[in-house]
Structure formats: C-alpha cells, structure tokens
Amino acid sequence: MAKKAGKRTIIFENRPSVVSYGSIVGKKEHEGPLAGEFDTYTTDSFFGENSFEKAESKLQKTAVNIALEKKKLKTDDIDAVFAGDLLNQCIGSSFGIREMGIPFIGLYGACSTMALSTALASLFVDCGAAKRTLAVTSSHFCSAERQYRFPLNYGSQRTPTAQWTVTGSGALIVESGGDGPYINAAAFGEIEDYGITDTNNMGAAMAPAAASTLIHYLRDTNTTPEDYDIIFTGDLGYTGTQALYELCDREKVDIRCRHSDCGIIIFDREKQDVHSGGSGCGCSAVVLASYIMHRFENKELKNILFMSTGALMSPTSSFQGESIPAIAHLLNIKSE
C-alpha cells in the first residue's frame, strides 16, 4: 500500500512497473535529434483525417495500440486508462479512446498530464484497485495553435520566448509485478501563479511550479539532485529552464549538472525554427515513452526524476486578462 512522505510525496510499495510503451510523432519531431527513438511518425498533419483535432485523437489511439501490441495485450486486459490533452473538454483523449471499451479517467493537467496520468495509473495499481492500467496523452501543433493563438494561415510572427507545440502522443502500460522500470514515488504539485500573463512565454509561467514541486520532493524524501542520474522536466524550454535554475538557486539547490528538459532535447534549435524549444502534453510524453524508456532498457539510467509542467490557462481566461497559473507533477522512476 502506498504511504505518504512529507507534504506532497507518495511512496509506492508494490512497485508498479512500466511493462510497455508506445510513441508517435509528427514530421518536425521526426526530423529532430531523437528521430530514431520514436516507434513511428507521420508526415501528414491530418493523419488521414479531415481535421487537426481528429488527427490528434488518432495519435492517441495509435500510441495506445503500439503499447498494447508490444506486450501482446488487448484492450480487455486494461483495467483503466488515464488520459488527457490540451483541447477543450479533452476531446483528443475521449474521442481517441471511446471505441476501446476501457474504463476512462479523463484528466486535465495541461502539459503536466503525462506525469499526472502515470502517477494516478501507478497509484491504482499499487493499492490493488487495478491490475493493469494505461497512461496516455497527446498534443498537436495545429490544433493547439488554432485553440490558443492564431489560425495557421494568419502568419503571425512568434516571439523569441514562444515554444513549438509537439505533435505526438506517448502511452505507458503500468502493471503490478512487472520486470520493467518501476514508479517508486510520485509528488503532486500545488498551483503556482507568479502573475505571468504572456501566453507566448509558457516557460516563465511554469518554472515556479517546477521549482516548487522539485524542492518539496527533495525535502520530503531527504535527497539531493546528486542522488539521481537525471532530473527531466517536461517542456520548460530554454527560457523556462534558466528561470528554474535561478529559482532553485534561491533555495540553495543546484540542478544544472543533473538536469535535462524534454522541450530542449526533442528539437535542434540551430536547425529547426522552434525559438525557445518544444512544449505541449505530447512533448514529455513522447520523450518518456521512447528516449527515457530506452535508456532504462539499456541500463544507462537507474534512478531518475521525471517532472511534467503545465500552464492551467484557457483561451477564455487569457481573453479576460487573467494571469497564467501553473502546475508540476513529479515521478521517481527506478530500475533494478
């Protein structure tokens, strides 16, 4: 049974393990440094559908099916799926999962959804509420731009702090007693709001949440950054990463030698026009369900922190002049 450690952290005792995973990305992501890591990719932004939103649902469905096929599982073998995305009412997830016949727990954590869904999927397995669960999320550059910013044909100029929403989906299957890397602990974040209102500077809005969750986790577990191989953040990008370092410095915690950001490593900033890096629910999801899991398989990683960050605003709140509240959830993933 899971037990509480400190204020925010939950330690899992029955070692919920990642036994399979699947990832799919778009053309731009496949042209980046991690091209060889992903299971598959598409060069069609519509993915054979007639809208970007339907394409995003198909991305989720594809990632789930890849994860199932690797383990020779069927949808009936999954007790619950935890899923969410950036679209209004999370239709990327609900429409993508609707035909699978799996109990569905819809989530909204913005770009923090991969850590949130995996944490809850692990909690269900650890406490015996489910034998096998699935965590999945997605994002799509075109659907996100249409909802949060401008129509693509508007041709607006992006600011230097703007990030490129990743087109992709990542899925993990978690079960009790597996041999794969296991979720050792999870820390759920509190909402942080530093009054940032610039929707083209998500990194600055999310960095305080990342710093808060990380500092609380380290204190809850009496550990230091040096105890981990790498501390992965989800999609702070270049701007948010520098802000995270400064905020951690105030608490006398230096993570520079242990930190890697999914939004930085998924694209080549010199060759690809991504400004401050990648973002979106799919950003940390596809990196976790490919690059990170491969490093566990190859014994290159044994003990990491994986922290997804999300900006909890909506088009409505932005139009009304609201600031951007943010959240960060954290996983401690270990291998034998």
Can you characterise this structure?
By secondary structure, the protein is an alpha/beta fold. It folds into two domains: 13-176, Stage V sporulation protein AD (Peroxisomal Thiolase, Chain A, domain 1); 182-334, Stage V sporulation protein AD (Peroxisomal Thiolase, Chain A, domain 1, 3-Layer(aba) Sandwich), CATH 3.40.47. The chain has helices spanning 27-30, 52-70, 91-97, 113-126, 141-148, 202-221, 237-250, 262-265, 281-297, 315-319; strands spanning 3-5, 9-11, 16-25, 40-41, 80-84, 104-106, 132-139, 164-165, 168-176, 182-187, 230-233, 259-261, 278-279, 303-311, 326-334. Strands 1-2-10-15-14-11-12 form a seven-stranded mixed β-sheet, sandwiched between helices. It has a six-stranded mixed β-sheet with strand order 4-3-9-7-5-6, with helices on both faces. The protein has a two-stranded parallel ribbon with strand order 8-13. A hairpin with a 3-residue loop joins strand 1 and strand 2 (9-11). Helix 2 (52-70) crosses helix 3 (91-97). The longest helix is centred in the middle third of the chain and has 20 residues, at 202-221. The chain starts with a strand and ends with a strand.
